[in-house]
Amino acid sequence: MTAAGLNWQGLMEQMERALPHTQASDASLAYFRYPKRTVTLSLPVRMDDGAVRVFKGYRTVHSIGRGPAMGGVRYKDGLNAHECEVLAGIMTLKAAIADLPIGGAKGGVNVDPTTLSPGELERLTRRYTSELVELIGPREDIMSPDIGTDEQVMAWMLDTYNENLGDTSSGVVVGKPIPLGGSYGSKDARGRSAALVTEQVLGSVKNLSVAVQGFGGVGRKAAQVLAQRGAHIVAVSDQAGGAYASGGLDLDAVIAHRDLTGSVDGAGLRLTAQELLALDVDILVLAWDYGAINAGNAADVRARTLVEATNRAVMPEAETFLNRRGVQVIPDLIASNGGVIVNYLEWVQDASNFFWTEDEIVRALDTRILAALEHVMAFARTRQTDLRTAGYAVALNRLHDATILRGIYP
């Protein structure tokens, strides 16, 4: 799926179905339709062989109507400005649904990080951060991990920012290592929220069959939590391949196999990622990247419930087709918002320099995940809409309220 499949038109068409259920005005919608800013960066980096290679980088701040912007930095081959803008808009919606006083952002570099040495990756990260140093900050734009980045990349960003400004601020990035002001629960939050939301929406997951596309940090945690609650994880996949067992996989063995070989391929009966998407299962968890289910493969889907554990995993045209067949889609707006919630909690801890225990973080995370879900589900029941439409409506109402209260600067 190319970035062309991720566009404003598809997002706005889905949002239009929510408009009759909102108080949104032309003025407040204008603030959503147009990101606050997008910057494009040329990033010269000296490679290990002495040559200089110039990478393209991007950073979009979509909204600051409810507070400073926050969003991921992805290192991904083919990344462009438009992809960052759409994902930043989705981040604004997710933060509003969770009722957090922040807006959405997204950025990154057009690069396959697996082609870089550790030294090259560090130099690229520091160059990217240096170019943005006057635009980012704990009260302006907070960066977090995304596809192709991790807590080590966040540590380099933190150090570069502070060295440039002569500061000791830790809140400019979240998803950091714990010794640098990171938070417990950061790595597991998105997967945990996907599992908790799925159980709550379905009532129970006991004895239900589950396939997980994308057995990285998010997919792994979602699978573990669902299994703890009685589901049978029958298939998992990653970039290299997949594993299947009709009676359920031994997740500990799958994780050990992945740690040893670098992939889940061969941890059970082999299958491809596309074969996994077509399995006859109760729940299909989509935990890789946007566009996993699209017009080209929607007809192959046999799962009864799809869970977007990552942003925009189901394209609008595919969702329309699946809804007609009675397939339920639990949208990213509620299924994966544990990530933005725990990032917000880390930012709050950094601002106060007071850090909570792991149990306190998990309780706060679960409380906010389920509160956001209940609000959306109640709205859906009252208005007789699907969960995505209800989520958009809840978010747009909150963004409208903030826009009207702030007013339009002359």
UniProtKB/TrEMBL annotation:
SUPFAM superfamilies per the UniProt record, alphabetical: Aminoacid dehydrogenase-like, N-terminal domain (SSF53223), NAD(P)-binding Rossmann-fold domains (SSF51735)
One GO MF term attached to the UniProt entry: glutamate dehydrogenase (NAD+) activity
Domain (Glutamate/phenylalanine/leucine/valine/L-tryptophan dehydrogenase C-terminal) ranges: 183-407
First and last residue of the signal peptide: none
Keywords, sorted A to Z: Oxidoreductase
SMART domains the record matches: ELFV_dehydrog
Matching InterPro entries: Aminoacid_DH-like_N_sf (IPR046346), Glu/Leu/Phe/Val/Trp_DH (IPR006095), Glu/Leu/Phe/Val/Trp_DH_C (IPR006096), Glu/Leu/Phe/Val/Trp_DH_dimer (IPR006097), Glu/Leu/Phe/Val_DH_AS (IPR033524), Glu_DH (IPR014362), NAD(P)-bd_dom_sf (IPR036291), NAD_bind_Glu_DH (IPR033922)
Catalytic residue positions: 106
Pfam families recorded: ELFV_dehydrog, ELFV_dehydrog_N
Site (Important for catalysis): 146
Gene Ontology terms: biological process: L-glutamate catabolic process
Similarity field: Belongs to the Glu/Leu/Phe/Val dehydrogenases family.
Name of this protein: Glutamate dehydrogenase
Species assigned in the record: Deinococcus maricopensis (strain DSM 21211 / LMG 22137 / NRRL B-23946 / LB-34)
